[in-house]
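Q: What structure does this chain adopt?
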Amino acid sequence: MRKLRTKRAVIATALALAAVLGAGGWATGTQTALTGPPPGSAAWTADTAFGLHLPDPATTAPAQAAAFFAGLTPAQQEALAARHPLVVGNLDGAPVRLRYHANSLALAAERDRELARTTDPALTPQDHQAARTRVERYRTLLDGGRQILAFDPRGRGQVAEVFGDLATAPRSAVIVPGSDIDLLTFDRATEPYGTPAGMARALHRATDGRTAVIAWAGYTTPVGVGVDAATEDLARAGADRLTRLLDGLAVSTSPQAPATVFCHSYGSVVCGLARPTPARASALVVLGSPGMGVGSAADLDPGVPLWATARNDSDWIGNVPNVRFLGLGHGADPTDPGFGARPLPSAGSRGHTGYFAPGTASLAAYAAIALGK
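A:
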């Protein structure tokens, strides 16, 4: 009997992987998670120009970072942002407004660097085109006073943007995206409600601006559907980064309650492995989820309500069997009544990325939860 159960588990795992492959094709290669301190940290810790002992970003908790900046004058804060924009702009716990300013400086510097690469004779035409693409992305992020909470140009690039005012909004929310999201795909006009920026805009509007929403592309996501999407290595690294983000929000903003965290697709695995506490999150909401990397809601903190959005009929994620075996798959279906999550409607939504579209029952429910109703 035991051998039979093992055989069935192997078959189920194979079927799950086949379903993933059939949904979008095998992704070649794997991604290496971007971990560790922000770029430029070595220069930051070595800087003695102001007679200050600058805290090591690799070991400094967000609360410690907040205390450090609170002890500086505004002029000292501005000077450090100008000298080390990539550190200040990515340091959870640093003042939010200072991070916006630092990231605008970092974006401008990277735009100029990529602009020089567009005509560098030592580079290939493909390199020139890639540089032009990045120049355009940096230009759009610099336009219109956008509030960039994090920016890291390394690898595929990472970015986080705030919609609303984190200092005055009574509530806040974080959007955690799934596969194929990075600096270039963070915000797309062709898919206005299927990217983290589009989801955040929609939720901010649906709450009449009473919720400040963070579109967070702050971890290395899988590319395509393949080994990375079927395993949890990237999600574990993302969970650590999400925890730091939430800890940073707790000490650098003043909403009435911790953020509500919305977890889309593979992002729900990140949220499940992060297991946020009530001090970090008011609620978790999953949508288009392949599983959360846990057996049931009982494996999460009982003080953080968990909501699961009913899958619409055109969401391909429903074709992925909910198994977890030999490192493949993400476990039980959060929409299954036995999982223990609170159900949410999805009427009017279409496809895997349509849950935040205006007029859907899901967006209306998300707005109510974000507002604490």
